[in-house]
Amino acid sequence: MKKILLKNAKVVDDKGIRKSDILIDDEKIAAEEKRGFFEEGEQKGEFKIIDLDGKYIFPGIIDAHTHYLLRSRGTVTADDFYQGSIAAAAGGVTTVIDYVDFPEDGDFKRSVAARKKEAEESVIDYNFHQIVQEFNPEISENLADLKELGLASIKLFTTYKDVGYMIDRKMWPDLFKRLKEIKILPQVHAEDDSLIQDLKEVYSRRNLIESRYHPAIRPAAAEALAVKDMGEVAHEVDIPIYIVHLSSAEGLEAVRKLRAEKAQVYAETTPHYLMLDNSYLKREDAQLFLMTPPLRDKYDNQILWQGISQNEFQVVATDHCAFNREQKMKSNSSLEILPGIPGTESLLPLIYSSGVRNNRITIREMVELLSINPAKIFGLYPEKGSLEIGTDADLTVFDPNVEKKLTAENLHSAAEYSPYQDFTVKGYPVMTFRRGQLIFDNKLRAEKGSGKFIFAHSSSLL
Ligand SMILES: [Zn+2]
């Protein structure tokens, strides 16, 4: 296979921003040099040349929070690993970290193997977080298997007791001690279940259960309480925790308080908590904007953006969980609507347009949030999240001048709607390289199943 020369690029990675040419050899980054360095080889026809004419190259974007092929309430998400990964590739994403359901028998070897099988059709690379709902001596023992299986993190829930996801609070200290010992990072979906159960009861009794009541039934206070509770226990055990999809100003305030006490709390938020608010839940198609935690106030959007600007978040990921219109509109009870929205494909364009263009963050900080940090935190660095010589040639080529409306027609999720359909972004990925192969540029060029599982090492936080 001929080497590929990407010339006249503006490269952004952990070393900063510079103008250079990047040479790809098979799956790896072979060289990076100043413009003109490769002229001789160019003239001899040694490379396939792509002139980027000043466009950006980022290390491949990583969506650290996706749910492809998620089975929920008797149905399954519209995006499986094939369709979901096509949408991801179209959005400049080269790696996702998805989830593995908790195995009833605590056999993680089996659960991870089964999930790997389901992910085999992906066109981009992937890794997983293992969901853990229980803790006992056998599970304690089995958790060490995750390391050998190449997973760096587990996910805990402080809510959804009714469907069995919630891990009992009595188990937290011993679980955290074990995780510390074997260097596995705990993630938490933080919402206090008892408060939510009480509110559910209060609102249900009055039949106030449509979408617009979703934020009242699952308030920001529930998030803040759970962050505080779990943060304190983790702090006592002296292990870092990673809060997924932090949604509210109050939640962020709880994170700040823990950090002031020197607890090691890391936080992820999503484009929807930055850019959508609960006024969408009063629309006729409110169901399309329902996820958990719920959309908050415009004020929360503002405070979360401030948090992004002040480097209080380490990762922006999407919680991509795509159901189609028919699945979403089936009920208008917030207690029954399938929660989740599509997101991966619009992650980079939204954060660039709203974050970088509005001077809330620098382009380098954006690359940290969307690629470098998730790679480090979930043990994929430097193979992913960097442009170091000899590592995987995962590259996102980004044109800051392309304008696009985020309509369903322009996007690839099988959800066939976008919660951002009224948004026009400026700046869009135009080529996606995964391990040296151009997999997307206006159209899909990758074969089904060409993505692969990437083995994770320990989190940089541990
Ligand atoms: Zn999720």
Label the structural class: alpha/beta
Q: How many domains in all?
A: 2
Task: Please describe the biggest sheet, giving its number of strands, its sense, and whether it closes into a barrel.
Answer: 8 strands, mixed
CA distance, first residue to last residue? 39 Å
At CATH level 3, the topology of the largest domain is TIM Barrel
Query: What's the level 1 CATH class of the largest domain?
Result: Alpha Beta
Bound molecules: zinc ion
**Total beta strands:** 18
Q: Globular, elongated, flat, extended or rod-shaped: what is the shape?
A: globular
Number of helices: 14
CATH superfamily of the largest domain: Metal-dependent hydrolases
What percentage of residues falls in helices of 4 or more residues? 25-40%
Low confidence ranges:
none
What's the architecture of the largest domain in CATH terms? Alpha-Beta Barrel
Q: What Rg, in angstroms, do the CA atoms define?
A: 22 Å
Amount of beta strand: 15-25%
Write down the overall mean pLDDT: 97
